[in-house]
Design goal:
single chain; 5-stranded mixed β-sheet; 6-stranded mixed β-sheet; Purple Acid Phosphatase, chain A, domain 2; 15 strands; 9 helices
Length: about 260
């Protein structure tokens, strides 16, 4: 059993810092990616993002085995020049800071992963959709650790990076299946329960594998007109945690709570 601190989409936010003051009480601290490209309504600058990112790297250096850094869709254009060149658009991407951020990723490349497994729970930025894994990645593995290894190998070459750049219509793309850095929560919610014209619609998470991911923001305006954030969405064998707040996961019971 592991006690994990989960830190979803960062985008320059500093909500991760306070819970990390008590880092010793956790077995693992898992960042789910998207360190850059801040939202305009939060008044976070790119300079703030870079400084925040450097502090996260310093945390990783200090607690190497405990801190896990995953990559999100907003990170790949900075992380990989090949990905940046063939991807069609880059939401809120900064051309001004591109070189500086890319240099940081290049220097600390080995710190970052696409996927991670802890106590039979699979962690990615946006969740692994079964049809993408089978039809795009061409992975028919059923072992969670082997699936994780295959996902992490996707950043090794251009072919793998192209598979990560797979975006469904839920996110404005044209691909049939969404990748584990782009899947919308709606891509992950659908299950094998829709039959039409004798064709079974299958669009769901990997069968019988527990997953935790972020990516889909649930921001809304409260009664005072201020931006507020939602809570975890739990379904099937998955938990999608919202951005801008830390969570605690008990892997033994697969229970998640907001800190």
């Amino acid at each position: 059993m592991s006690k994990c601190l989960l830190l979803p989409d960062i985008h320059g936010r500093k909500f991760w810092k306070k819970p990390c003051e008590n880092i010793d009480i956790y077995d693992k601290v898992i960042f789910l990616g998207d360190y850059f490209d801040p939202y305009g309504f939060e008044n976070i600058t790119f300079e703030d993002c870079v400084n925040n990112f450097i502090e996260i790297i310093e945390l990783k250096e200090k607690y190497s085995d405990k801190v896990v850094l995953l990559l999100g869709n907003h990170d790949l254009p900075y992380f990989s020049e090949d990905y940046y060149k063939f991807s069609l658009w880059h939401c809120r991407h900064s051309s001004k800071y591109h070189k500086r951020i890319s240099e940081l990723f290049a220097e600390y490349r080995d710190y970052f992963k696409i996927a991670y497994v802890e106590d039979s729970v699979l962690f990615t930025h946006a969740g692994v959709e079964s049809r993408w894994l089978e039809n795009v990645v061409k992975c028919n593995e059923t072992d969670i650790n082997e699936i994780c290894n295959v996902l992490n190998s996707l950043t090794d070459n251009t072919e793998g990076l192209c598979r990560l750049y797979s975006i469904s219509f839920q996110r404005g793309g044209r691909d049939k299946y969404p990748s584990c850095i782009w899947a919308d929560v709606h891509d992950m919610l659908w299950d094998v329960d829709s039959v039409k014209d004798n064709v079974t619609a299958i669009k769901n998470p990997i069968y019988n594998i527990k997953q935790v991911f972020g990516h889909t923001i649930q921001a809304f305006y409260d009664e005072n007109g201020k931006v507020a954030f939602g809570d975890a969405i739990e379904f099937k064998n998955c938990k999608m945690i919202d951005t801008a707040k830390p969570y605690k996961l008990d892997t033994k019971n697969f229970t998640i709570t907001t800190i």
